[in-house]
Design goal:
It is a single chain. The protein has helices at 2-17, 44-51, 69-82, 94-107, 132-140, 152-155, 188-206; strands at 20-22, 33-37, 56-61, 84-87, 111-114, 126-127, 144-150, 169-172, 210-211. It is 38% helix and 17% strand. β3, α3 (69-82) and β4 (84-87) form a beta-alpha-beta unit. By secondary structure, it is an alpha/beta fold. It has a seven-stranded mixed sheet with strand order 1-8-7-2-5-3-4, sandwiched between helices. A two-stranded parallel sheet has the order 6-9. This is Lysophospholipid acyltransferase family protein.
Length: 220
């Protein structure tokens, strides 16, 4: 499945959508790196995976990996090939489990992608980031590459079941080094400062209006 995704599916999707990519060379080809992006649509994960220039891991719901039958096993295998790491989000300690899964990827020298906003932006603005991204950067020493995804909300608008043919643009920024804060990951003030610096870099790439409040989805 990894070979199918890498050698068949990925080139076909890139040919079909022809994404405009800026700064992909800024993503280190080796060693741990955190890719922090804005979040506009469900296809964002696929866009990052296809343009980052190296294998990238993401968090995925654990139930996606436990489905039975041929179809369920095939879907789980497909998600694994895309780089998804299963996490039980229904667990009371889901946040800690997610951070631990991310640390495992980074400690193994891998690339891990995260959306600091925590959920897709439904109003098009860039919202305040959660400090999990700072916790990862400070505890692992991994550099953070800010990323702006532009136009993905047109590929798969909210409520659309299938992606549409629309051009997207991906901007990879300069890696951010937070080694100056080594040993200070226990400080909430430092975690907030690091997160805000990352969000500021994303805003500079995406040109979205920044809102200093967490994004909350409307009640169903």
């Amino acid at each position: 499945m990894h070979l199918v995704v890498r050698w068949l599916l990925a080139p076909f999707v890139r040919f079909l959508y022809r994404p405009v990519v800026h700064g992909a060379e800024r993503v280190p080809r080796f060693g741990p790196v955190i890719i922090a992006a804005n979040h506009r649509a469900a296809v964002d994960t696929a866009v990052i995976a296809l343009t980052a220039g190296r294998s990238v891991s993401f968090l995925g719901k654990a139930e996606y990996f436990t489905a039975t039958g041929l179809r369920g096993r095939a879907f789980a295998s497909f998600l694994s090939a895309l780089g998804y790491v299963p996490v039980d989000r229904a667990n009371a300690k889901a946040g800690l489990a997610a951070l631990e899964a991310a640390r495992t990827v980074l400690d193994d020298g891998g690339a891990f992608a995260i959306y600091p906003e925590g959920t897709r932006s439904l109003d098009g603005r860039l919202h305040r980031g959660h400090t999990g991204v700072a916790t990862l950067a400070l505890s692992t020493g991994a550099p953070v590459v800010p990323v702006a995804l532009i136009g993905t909300e047109r590929v798969q608008p909210v409520g659309a079941r299938f992606p549409r043919l629309r051009r997207v643009t991906v901007h990879f920024g300069e890696p951010l080094d937070f080694s100056r804060y080594e040993g200070l990951e226990g400080s909430g003030m430092i975690r907030r400062a690091v997160t805000d610096e990352i969000m500021d870099a994303i805003a500079g790439l995406s040109h979205q209006e920044y809102v200093d409040t967490y994004h909350e989805r409307p009640a169903a």
